[in-house]
Every structure is written in C-alpha cells, then in structure tokens.
Amino acid sequence: MTFQLPKTSVAETLAQKIVALKAGDLPMSTTRKCEDLLIDVVGLCVTARNEDYVTSALLGSDDDGPCTVIGHKRTLTASGAAFVNGTAAHGEDFDDTFEGGPVHAGAVIVPAVLAACERHNPDGQMALIGIAVGTEVLCRLSLVVPKAVHKAGFHPTAIFGAMGAAAGVGTALGLDARQIVDALGIAGSMAGGIIEYLAEGAWTKRLHAGWAAQSGIRAALLARQGFVGPRTVFEGVHGLFHGFAHTTDGDYEALTGDFGMRWVTDTLAFKPYPCGTMAQPYIDCARRLAARGVRLEDITEIVCEVAEGTVHRLWEPLASKQRPRNGYAAKFATPYLLAAGFVHGGVGLGAFTEKAIGDADVLALAAKVKFVIDPQNPYPASYTGHLRATLKDGSVVEERQPHLRGGAQEPLTRQDVMQKFALNALHGGWTTAQSDATLGLLAALYNGRIDLSTLRN
After folding, report:
1. DSSP 176
2. Which residues belong to CATH 3.30.1330.120 in the chain?
3. Sheet holding 369-373, edge to edge
4. CATH of region 10-271+424-455
5. Helix 156-172 vs helix 10-19: angle between axes, to the nearest 10 degrees?
6. What pLDDT is recorded for position 2?
7. Whether the model pTM is above 0.90
8. Which end of the chain is more exposed for a tag (fewer CB within 10 A), N or C?
9. Could you give the residue range(s) of every CATH 1.10.4100.10 domain in the chain?
10. What mean pLDDT is predicted for residues 329-346?
11. MmgE/PrpD N-terminal domain spans which residues (predicted)?
C-alpha cells in the first residue's frame, strides 16, 4: 500500500475547529440538548445502580479516588468513575441514539467529561462545551463510512466513543490543537469493542460505553503531558477506519466540513423503550395493532419489512430472536420486543426479567413473527417500522411507523426527559425528594462549579 502523508491531516483540521469554539458559541438548541443529555444520563446511572453488572463493574475496580460514581458512596479515579458510570448509563440500552450512526453518545461523553472536570477542571461552562464537542465528534465519525463498522463486527459506539471522549475531555480541560490531535491519535489505539455479545446475551456491550469514556480521559491526560499520537489516526493506511471499517475511503467532510457551524447533536434521539433502537418503531406498530382491537389468538403470522443492515443484530438467528435466552439478549430481539409491545401495551424495564421473557403469550406471538428485507429502507439515515399481520379469517392488517419516536421528527420535550428521569430514579430506589434535588442540581450545573457529591448515595 502507498499513502502520501497529508500536509494537514483530518485530525489536525478537526482540532483547529474544536479549539476555535467557546461555550458561548453554542446555539441554544445545542445547549438544551446537552442539558437533556445530562438529565438523561444521570437518571440512567441511577436506574442501573443496583443491577448485577454495575455491582461487578464497581467491585472489579481497584482505583479508588475522588470522583463520583453516581448512586454509590464509593469514589474512584476519574477514569474509574467514567468507566462505571458509562457502563451503568448504557447498561439498560435506554440511552440516546444518533440516527445517522447508529451510535450512543451520552453514555460515553457525559460520564467522561463529568469525571474529568470533577477531578481536573470543575468549571461548568467547560463541561458544557466538552460534552457538546465530544458528542458532535462521536456522531459525525459514524457518518464517514456508514454501516461499515457494524458490518466488520465492531460496535460503533465503542470505536467512535473513545475518539469522541478524547475530543470532549480534551476540550473540557483546555488542551491546545496539537494536544487534541495527540489525544485523538492515542485514543485510536485504545478503541475496541466486538459485537459477539449478540450470540448469547453476554454483558460486554454494556461496558463498551464505559471503556470508551475512560479511554478518552486517559488519552487526553497523556496528550496534555506531551505523549505523541499519530496525526493520521483517521485516514492513515493503518488508521482507525482501516482497522475497524476495512477501508480508508470515506466522507471525511462529514466529520470536519461544517464542524462548529451545524450541530448534528441537535438531532439526537431519546428512546421511549429500554432496548435496541431500531426495534422501537416496530414496538409502536405492534401497540397500534393491538389498539385496533386485533386479538392475539386471531393472528396467524406477522411479516415485517426490515433494513438489511439491522438483520444480523436484531433478526437473526430468527429462532433465538423469537425466544431469547436471557433478558439482555431480549433487548436485541425484535420478534420478542414486538410481541411484548402487543401483549402488554408497551415495553418497560420489567420486560427483561427472567419471568417476563418466559411469558407464554409473548413467546407464542413472537414465534409467528418473520421478516423480509426491504432494499429501499432508509436505514441508517432514519429508523422505520412495519408489520403486516395475517389473521385467521384471511384478512390482512398493516401498520407503518415512518420514524423513531423521540428522534428529530418527533422529539421528546424537556418535560418528557424529566419524567423519564423521575421514573428511572424511582426504579433505582431513589425517593422523590432525591430526584427533585438532583434535577435542581443538574439545571444549574453548566453555569457553576462541578460538584457531584450529592449524587453519592
């Protein structure tokens, strides 16, 4: 392979645009999205705080320090806190999604920047710009070679998350352009995350966000002290896209072209259901089918039109998606999720217990769900849903969902985000008084000093 080293690399172009930004430059829409991200991620950390995987992550950490693990008395180093908080925030698959990716930004960037600022620079305005920049970088990276990272067997949130966290933490800590380039170059060697968790519902997807968050902190701190990373980390012959997308040809303008002038962060979607994003419009279709008065016993078959790019994660092997082996596997099994939405009128955190995944009615309907690939499906630009139900009397009932609820076409309001927080906090064992006090803290966090000590319970 031959590669002419560029005079100015992609990372250098990006870093120059990053350091030119100030918190006061953010559009109000982007600031509000970062406020929503803060509320959502903290609520997700609370809702998962007593789950077994969070307990394991915390017990497996031996780096005690001064930083807050949300919902716990124990404190860790900045990297340790970012790891546990990121793992918790992503653990129930209830976190935000960037529809163009798909990637999950909040569970990576918010824990990374909060921990770094709490330890090294407790300035709310710097946390705000850091979260905005980190989110924007993570999301835009997913547009360079769409679908290729998933196809290669990697989790885009894990791969691009390390890079976004490095950029976000670097911004929040006031790194200069050269240091941000080094941070990105270093993070490229820390990125990783295979999607083999799909085989049996293993826990590793949950740690991908936390690992990316702590990697970003370590990369930024190393760069701040002069550690050198490759400036061609993105486009190089042996760069990030070569390693994780099997190509160096990509739309790098999607990353740098109008960075800082147009914010794709504004389009982030907040999930209505705690499960795989692309399955959510199918749940809505199933709920509408039930609302039309269709009875479970009248359905002989359901066929769904789906995007080819989602099949290997959400639809195959079909038998395993119709009868998932555990609650975590069920989060990525569209036939099960669709059936649960039909039978129970929705899909909540309780849909993934061992008892819930054995529900006879849900499994009976899931066994009737099949799929066909729609070559015109717009994924990953947008996520749609469809089902065609054939009934015993020979009639056919069809439902379509043109977009993801909670996304750009039908966004959640601030009140919706706060209500989701309250429900998550309640599920995590917090009182209403604790929830209200935390919402008050978060409302002012970007305008003052980062102090998360009240979240340690």
Report:
1. -
2. 277-401
3. 369-373, 299-306, 385-391, 396-401
4. 1.10.4100.10
5. 40
6. 61
7. yes
8. N
9. 10-271+424-455
10. 97
11. 12-248
